[in-house]
Design brief:
Layout lengths: L23 H33 L4 H20 L4 H6 L1 H15 L11 E4 L2 E4 H19 L16 H17 L2 H10 L3 H18 L4 H18 L6 H8 L10 H13 L24 H33 L4 H25 L17 H49 L3 H9 L1
Antiparallel strand pairs: 1-2
Helix pairs in contact: 1-2, 1-12, 2-14, 4-5, 4-7, 5-6, 5-8, 5-13, 7-8, 8-13, 11-12, 12-13, 13-14
Length: 436
C-alpha cells in the first residue's frame, strides 16, 4: 500500500538572523519616517511647554515622556524588524485571546472622564485598544490570506466555478471568517465606550479586505452600502448622550459648536499663510483643549500656517504611498495584507485627525500619529514600523531570488538552444563541402 509522505516543515523561529537586503524603497521610507518623527517632536514641545509648566510645573514634562516612549519604541522597532512574519502569523490566534482579556480587564478599571480605556499598573498606563488594532491587522490578514482564491475562467482548461463554490469562497472564507473575530472586539470597545477605536479598527479591517481583493466586488458593494448607511446610523445615537452632544456640535454655526472645535478653527484661521512663527501660538495657552494630543494639528496651523500644514500632509502622503509600495512588493499575500493594514491605520488616523480639527468630521478624539502625545500609541506604531521593515527586506530578498532563478532559466534555455544549434546540420554547407 502506498503511503503519502508529508513535506517536512522547517521550525519557525521568532527572530531572523538576516531578513534580507535593504532596498532603496525601504531606506527612502525610513528617511521619510525620520523626518516625520523629528517634526513631531519639535511641534509637540512647542505645543506642550506652556501646558506642562502650568499643570505639571515642568515645561519639559510632555516632551520628556514622548522622548522616552520614542526610545522604547525604537527599541521595539529594531526587535520587530527581525521578527519572522511566520512567527507573527502563528501567534495571531493566541494574541487575539490575550487582547480580549486585556479589553475585559480595561472595563474593571476606574473611569476617567466617563470612559474606561486604560489599564493602570505600577504607575504605568496601557491603552488596550491600541494593542487591539495591531492584533486585528495580524489576525484578519492571516484568515484572509488563508482563504482559497477563485480561479478565473480559462477556456483552454475548462475551469468552471459553481455558484455554491463561489459563495463559499467569496462570502464565507474571504469575508465572513476574517470579520467574525472583529465582533467581540467591537462589543468590548463599545462598553468602554471608545467609539473612535471602533471606527478606526473597522476602517482598517475593511481597507485590508478592499485593497487585498478579498471578497471581490462584494467587498466594494459592502463598503459603498456602509457609507450610504452612515448618516442613518448617526441619526440613531440618541441613547449615547456624549455622542449626541458631539454630533449636535458638528455644525457651521459658531454659537452651537463645541468649545474645542471653535478654538481649533480660531487657531487655524489666525495662522494664515505662513503662521505666527514656531512657539508663538496663542491658543495653546490653555485656550485650546487637548493641544498636546487630539488638536496638535491646530497648533501646527497656527504657528506654521497653511504652508506648514500642507508640508505635514505631503509628508504623510509620501510615507503612506511608500509603505503601500513596500506592502505590494512583499514576499507573500499575508505580508501584503499586514503592510496594507499598518499603512491603513496611519492613513485613517491622519485623515480623521485633520478632518476633526477642521470641523470636516465630528469630534472623535483620534490622535495624529508621531505628533500627539501618548506613550502606548507611539510605542505600538514604531513596533508596527519594525514589522514593515521586516516585510520590505524579506520582499527584496524574495525578489532577488526570483530574479536569480529567472536568470538561471534563461541561461539554461540559451545553453539548450546553443547545443541544439551545434547538433543541427546546415544542408547548404554540407552540399558545398560535398561538391569540393
Amino acid at each position: 500500500m502506498a503511503t503519502i509522505r508529508r513535506k517536512h516543515r522547517e521550525p519557525v523561529r521568532p527572530l531572523q538572523r538576516d531578513p534580507g537586503p535593504w532596498s532603496r524603497l525601504v531606506i527612502d521610507w525610513l528617511a521619510t519616517l525620520a523626518v516625520i518623527m523629528v517634526f513631531g517632536l519639535v511641534m509637540l514641545f512647542s505645543a506642550s511647554y506652556t501646558t506642562g509648566y502650568l499643570r505639571m510645573g515642568d515645561s519639559f514634562h510632555y516632551i520628556k515622556q514622548q522622548a522616552l516612549c520614542m526610545m522604547i519604541g525604537l527599541g521595539c522597532m529594531f526587535v520587530m524588524s527581525y521578527m519572522d512574519h511566520r512567527f507573527l502569523r502563528k501567534m495571531a490566534v493566541p494574541g487575539y485571546f490575550i487582547v480580549l482579556v486585556m479589553l475585559a480587564v480595561t472595563l474593571t478599571m476606574a473611569p476617567l472622564n466617563g470612559c474606561r480605556r486604560w489599564i493602570r499598573f505600577g504607575g504605568f498606563t496601557l491603552q488596550s485598544s491600541e494593542v487591539a488594532k495591531f492584533e486585528m491587522i495580524l489576525l484578519c490578514s492571516s484568515l484572509a490570506a488563508k482563504a482559497p482564491q477563485i480561479e478565473k475562467y480559462d477556456p483552454t482548461r475548462r475551469v468552471h466555478v459553481t455558484p455554491h463554490t463561489w459563495f463559499y469562497v467569496r462570502v464565507w472564507k474571504q469575508l465572513i471568517l476574517p470579520v467574525l473575530p472583529l465582533l467581540p472586539v467591537i462589543v468590548l470597545l463599545a462598553l468602554e465606550p471608545h467609539m473612535s477605536g471602533i471606527v478606526l479598527t473597522v476602517a482598517v479591517v475593511g481597507t485590508i479586505l478592499l485593497l487585498s481583493g478579498s471578497g471581490g466586488i462584494l467587498t466594494w458593494v459592502g463598503a459603498g452600502a456602509a457609507g450610504l448607511m452612515l448618516e442613518t446610523l448617526l441619526s440613531h445615537v440618541d441613547s449615547i448622550p456624549y455622542l449626541q452632544d458631539r454630533l449636535d456640535g458638528w455644525t457651521q454655526d459658531l454659537s452651537k459648536m463645541t468649545d474645542q472645535t471653535v478654538q481649533s478653527l480660531y487657531a487655524i484661521g489666525s495662522g494664515g499663510l505662513t503662521g505666527l512663527g514656531l512657539g508663538n501660538s496663542v491658543e495653546k495657552q490653555l485656550w485650546l483643549p487637548e493641544s498636546t494630543n487630539d488638536f496638535i494639528f491646530s497648533v501646527v496651523c497656527e504657528e506654521l500656517g497653511f504652508v506648514g500644514a500642507v508640508l505635514i500632509i505631503v509628508l504623510f502622503v509620501l510615507f503612506i504611498v511608500q509603505g503601500l509600495l513596500i506592502a505590494y512588493r512583499a514576499e507573500n499575500l499575508y505580508c501584503t495584507m499586514v503592510g496594507i493594514g499598518i499603512m491603513a491605520q496611519i492613513a485613517w488616523q491622519v485623515f480623521c485627525n485633520i478632518a476633526v480639527v477642521t470641523n470636516t468630521l465630528p469630534n472623535t478624539g483620534i490622535s495624529l500619529p508621531f505628533f500627539s502625545s501618548g506613550g502606548t500609541s507611539l510605542i505600538l506604531l514604531l513596533a508596527e514600523m519594525g514589522v514593515m521593515v521586516n516585510i520590505g527586506r524579506n520582499g527584496e530578498r524574495a525578489a532577488q531570488q526570483r530574479e536569480a532563478m529567472r536568470a538561471q532559466h534563461e541561461a539554461a534555455k540559451a545553453e539548450r538552444e546553443a547545443d541544439r544549434a551545434s547538433r543541427t546540420i546546415d544542408l547548404d554547407a554540407a552540399r558545398r563541402a560535398r561538391e569540393v
